[in-house]
Amino acid sequence: RVPVHLSRARIEDCSAAFVGGAIYSKGLVALDAKSVIRRCGARGGGGLFVPGTAWLGGGSKIEDCAATKDGGGVRGPAVLLNDSSIERCSAESGGAVFLDADDSLVVGDGAIIQGNDATRGAGVYAAGDCAQGPDFGGGFNVHAIQPTSTEHGRIAALNMAGRVTPYQGSLQMN
């Protein structure tokens, strides 16, 4: 697994018959220093197909990429976005980002996901339960969506009504 690090790089007008229109890598892929992936396409991961970790930061961009199936911009199990953008990408599922069950997406300061198109999940398509947070046992796990969403709504309503109520965690039911 060889890491790929792009700094001030530009990959444009590329295509792959199967996955990874611009880059397919089983290791870490890091884009920074205003690197750009533009107008690339594939069946899965129009811009990036990364079975490892994809990190976009430093003003990097993935734009105008397409996948005929999943992840117009990025398909991968661990996607980290900070001071970067995925714009105008398209796919059947996950116009910008496609996440399968047990995958994770971390969005930090300055991350932009906008103007993407998909039949399902124009911005992000997340298969399976995707709510993660503290549990009563002191851990941090994926929670069942309905009970966790209900509890989040109750906590939000109490706080909006002026009753300061911290989120204590939920039972892991999956």
Summarize the structure.
This protein is mainly β and 174 residues long. The protein is built from 1 helix and 21 strands.
Question: How would you portray this structure in words?
Answer:
It contains one helix and 21 strands. It has one helix at 145-160, and strands spanning 4-7, 10-12, 23-24, 29-32, 36-38, 41-44, 48-49, 53-56, 61-63, 66-70, 74-75, 78-81, 85-87, 90-93, 97-99, 104-107, 112-114, 117-120, 124-126, 131-134, 140-143. The relative contact order is 0.12. β20 (131-134) and β21 (140-143) form a beta hairpin. A five-stranded parallel β-sheet has the order 1-4-8-12-16, with no helix packed on it. Strands 2-5-9-13-17 form a five-stranded parallel β-sheet, with no helix packed on it. It is mainly β and 174 residues long. The model has no long low-confidence stretch (mean pLDDT 86). Helix content is 9%, strand content 41%.
What's the structural blueprint in terms of helices and strands?
Layout: E1 4-7, E2 10-12, E3 23-24, E4 29-32, E5 36-38, E6 41-44, E7 48-49, E8 53-56, E9 61-63, E10 66-70, E11 74-75, E12 78-81, E13 85-87, E14 90-93, E15 97-99, E16 104-107, E17 112-114, E18 117-120, E19 124-126, E20 131-134, E21 140-143, H1 145-160
Parallel strand pairs: 1-4, 2-5, 3-7, 4-8, 5-9, 6-10, 7-11, 8-12, 9-13, 10-14, 11-15, 12-16, 13-17, 14-18, 15-19
Antiparallel strand pairs: 20-21
